[in-house]
Amino acid sequence: MRTTLKWLQRAENFIMGGAFIIMVAALFIQVVNRNVTKLALPWPEEVAVYSMIYLVLLGTEAGLRDGTQIQITAIVDRFRGRVKLGIQIVARLVVVAFSGAMAYASFGVIAAQAQSGQTSPVLRLPMYVPFGAFLLAFTIIFLVQGYALIVLVKAFIANDPDASVGVVPDSPDEVEEITAALGLNETADSEGAEEKR
């Protein structure tokens, strides 16, 4: 399972990189065309929009995977051990249920688009191609977060919070990071040591 997830994550990173390059190139072509050549080129905007859809949706999963999504952890960070694992399990359950429902719904939309034969206005691209971003992203979210949920449940049952390290990213304490970057932690530690003397 872990090997499959690593392969999925590599494929996801490859698709995001490709979508980013295509989007930037399409926007560059559009800007150059608007200011220099002034030809009738409607396709770069459509390419950029569809690339951005893939980039944003796959970026959502990448953010969930490495913990860079915006999250409020003030309450969760106050807990330790099994209680914290329990809260993380509930949060993962919500994410897995939502992503599973969205993947299922996306599959239905793609099937309907394939049957209708609808195409994009400019490129005449089948509309199931841009809508495929939803199915791809939510399927990967479902699999990766489902795996993280299994690891969390095993850690909860074993009462071993360290078993979830690497699967559940820790949210860094921003105050500690800032004070460490400014060198204030060392000053506070040395002042505390002097007071003890």
Structure, explained:
With 197 residues, the protein is an all-alpha fold. α3 (81-116) packs antiparallel against α4. The chain has helices at residues 2-37, 43-66, 81-116, 128-158, 174-182, 184-196. Residues 171-175 and 187-197 have low confidence and may be disordered.
* Outline: globular
- Supply Rg: 23 Å
Give the biggest sheet. Answer: none
User: How many structural domains does the protein architecture include?
Assistant: 1
Number of strands: 0
Uncertain runs with pLDDT below 50, 5 residues or more? Answer: 171-175, 187-197
**Backbone structural class:** mainly alpha
Q: How much of the polypeptide forms β-strand, as a percent range?
A: under 5%
Span of the ends, CA to CA = 55 Å
Taken in chain order, the helices and strands follow as HHHHHH
Number of helices: 6
Helix content: over 70%
Question: What integer is the average pLDDT?
Answer: 81
Secondary structure blueprint with pairings:
Elements: H1 2-37, H2 43-66, H3 81-116, H4 128-158, H5 174-182, H6 184-196
Helix pairs in contact: 1-2, 1-4, 2-4, 3-4
Could you name the key traits of this structure?
globular, disordered C terminus, 6 helices, mainly alpha, 197 residues, 0% strand
Quick recap of the structure?
The chain is an all-alpha fold.
